[in-house]
């Protein structure tokens, strides 16, 4: 019940927010919501299944290019994301069946390489992608775009919420903790991982396509930017890997810091994000949300409330 | 198609890849950590060599000794400040950490050297005749030095007492500890060796290529392909894989152009992952 109230409140807040900001603020919100979608998708495979994924930007970039080509072919910018998402999901299915049979290290470096190969292919196959010149499409209405991206963001947060307290979510967590033990308990680890991977590729594809409707332009370096990858990972890690609200906390924190401080220092931006990742890993490896829970900060959304509930009941039973 | 010429230039290229791939594999074998920053230390090494030779007027030979030492020192710092503290944790953390380190190295290099391309085409210019082919002197010397360094370290691992300790930690860490080997020291030395090899590969590449701060990413993914094809954690695997990749890249590049050529290398890696995930000499890749 509390969950539904929170969801309704969040949706209402998102719906009325554009009334209070100007177009610069709206633009900031669209970018932030795009990162919400990316971060939650990354959280599925990186946080819940525990696979270090350095190639999410490949799906984002592929989505952007598929979207751009669709829009240039006359498809509406609202339909193009669906096609882009279907395409990236298919690519993820094929790649996942190869890469997810292997241990995490192979997956990590393999996906990293695939993102870079996609970038050089986008550069090289200039008959289709126009190479470094880039593709141009019509910019979509910012308000409309905001609502579409916000809808996707709410969808994936809600989905993660459901997943977190479901049997499926717990199975993913067992894979993360000990894959052999998970398999011994009857968890179909490969199918589950591939399914999660496909799910985590849908949103980047759709958002990539929406991103070009926002920018009006795409080239290989924008589509497959290292910055997108690194920022997404830093956001999830900072907020808390494999938690429901961690990525949201991370996205908001990093977006605000970015907006206030680093917009002025673009040349050291990526180094600073790298430092944030390192500091988080060393001193707060479970992210802000877990840290806040441990310290009993008030007003921090507590994920996995049911687990805490169980813990309390066990403690009471012991007394 | 000029088979002999392509074969020769592929092998010469592969020799330098061997050096960086061996460094990666050495670190992976002992610590089960993939150092994403190795490629970027290579780029840093190349840029440092250019600066030492052009701005400080030092001879290339000095750079050849100094730069690997600097890279090894950076490696020691990386291990001491970051890797050492998370190596017992989940693998995803060490992957994320070295990825972050890689980004920091790239972007600091960008800050220092800017986005431009640098090289040392004047060092070791000219060519020699070998098997009836004109071979650029820089490539031949780089190949020989890279092979010499890789084989010296191979000898060190096989024959010396400390080398045996390194292999012991790589094969059975618990038994190594009960035999009185200091794992901590072995890890420090391994990390320094691996990053030093990347630095040396960088110096050797400076006369061959125009290098920019982001060169490491491009070489890095080839080094990953090498160790996957050759076998993770296997030193001879890295050497054989590197020569294979070098030859494959040159042939594919000649036939389909640079871009598709690079993609072919990656395709080969995917094929190996499907059919023989442990690579040629690997220690097993399955989850």
UniProtKB/TrEMBL annotation, chain A:
It is a multi-pass membrane protein. The keyword Transmembrane applies. The keyword Transmembrane helix applies. InterPro entries: ABC_transp_permease, LivM-like. It is found in: Cell membrane. Its main location: membrane. The chain crosses the membrane at residues 28-45, 86-115, 144-163, 197-218, 230-256, 268-285. Keywords: Cell membrane, Membrane, Transmembrane, Transmembrane helix. This is Branched-chain amino acid ABC transporter permease. It comes from Yanghanlia caeni.
């Amino acid at each position: 019940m509390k969950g539904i109230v929170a969801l309704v409140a969040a949706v209402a807040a998102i719906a009325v927010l554009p009334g209070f900001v100007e177009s610069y603020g709206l633009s900031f919100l669209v970018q932030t919501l795009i990162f919400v979608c990316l971060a939650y998708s990354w959280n599925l495979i990186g946080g819940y299944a525990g696979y270090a994924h350095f190639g999410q930007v490949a799906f984002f970039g592929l989505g952007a290019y598929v979207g751009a080509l669709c829009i240039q072919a006359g498809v509406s910018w609202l339909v193009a994301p669906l096609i882009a998402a279907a395409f990236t999901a298919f690519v993820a299915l094929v790649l996942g069946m190869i890469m997810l049979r292997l241990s995490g290290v192979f997956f990590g470096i393999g996906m990293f390489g695939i993102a870079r190969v996609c970038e050089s292919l986008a550069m090289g196959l200039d008959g289709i992608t126009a190479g470094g010149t880039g593709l141009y499409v019509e910019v979509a209405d910012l308000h409309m775009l905001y609502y579409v991206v916000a809808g996707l963001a709410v969808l994936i947060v809600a989905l993660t919420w459901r997943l977190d307290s479901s049997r499926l979510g717990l199975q993913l967590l067992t894979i993360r903790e000990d894959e052999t033990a998970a398999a011994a308990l009857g968890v179909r680890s490969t199918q589950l991982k591939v399914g999660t991977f496909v799910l985590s590729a849908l949103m980047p594809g759709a958002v990539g396509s929406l991103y070009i409707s926002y920018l009006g332009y795409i080239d290989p370096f924008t589509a497959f930017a290292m910055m997108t990858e690194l920022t997404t990972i830093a956001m999830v890690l900072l907020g808390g890997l494999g938690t429901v609200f961690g990525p949201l906390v991370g996205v908001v924190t990093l977006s605000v810091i970015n907006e206030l401080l680093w917009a002025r220092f673009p040349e050291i931006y990526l180094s600073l994000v790298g430092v944030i990742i390192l500091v988080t890993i060393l001193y707060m490896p479970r992210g802000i949300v877990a840290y806040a829970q441990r310290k009993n900060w008030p007003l921090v959304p507590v994920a996995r409330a049911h687990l805490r509930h169980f813990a309390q009941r066990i403690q009471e039973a012991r007394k | 198609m000029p088979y002999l010429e392509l074969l020769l230039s592929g092998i010469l290229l592969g020799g330098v890849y061997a050096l960086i791939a061996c460094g990666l594999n050495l670190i992976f074998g002992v610590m089960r950590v993939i150092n994403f920053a190795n490629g970027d230390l290579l780029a840093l090494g190349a840029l440092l060599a250019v600066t030492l030779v052009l701005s400080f007027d030092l001879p290339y030979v000095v750079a050849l000794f100094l730069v690997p030492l600097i890279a090894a020192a950076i490696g020691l710092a990386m291990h001491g400040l970051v890797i050492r503290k998370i190596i017992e944790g989940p693998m995803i953390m060490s992957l994320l950490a070295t990825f972050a380190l890689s980004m920091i190295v790239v972007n600091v290099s960008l800050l220092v050297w800017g986005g431009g391309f640098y090289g040392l085409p004047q060092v070791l210019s000219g060519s020699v005749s070998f098997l009836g082919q004109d071979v650029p002197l820089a490539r031949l010397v780089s190949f020989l030095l890279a092979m010499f360094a890789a084989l010296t370290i191979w000898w060190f691992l096989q024959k010396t007492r400390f080398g045996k300790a390194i292999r012991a930690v790589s094969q059975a860490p618990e038994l190594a500890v009960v035999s009185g080997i200091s794992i901590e020291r072995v890890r420090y030395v391994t990390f320094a060796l691996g990053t030093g090899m990347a630095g040396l590969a960088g110096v050797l590449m400076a006369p061959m290529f125009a290098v920019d701060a982001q060169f490491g990413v491009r070489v890095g993914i080839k080094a990953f392909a090498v160790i996957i094809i050759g076998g993770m954690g296997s030193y001879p695997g890295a050497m054989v894989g590197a020569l294979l990749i070098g030859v494959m890249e040159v042939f594919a590049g000649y036939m389909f152009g640079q871009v598709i050529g690079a993609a072919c290398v990656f395709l080969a890696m995917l094929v190996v992952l499907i059919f023989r995930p442990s690579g040629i000499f690997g220690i097993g890749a399955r989850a």
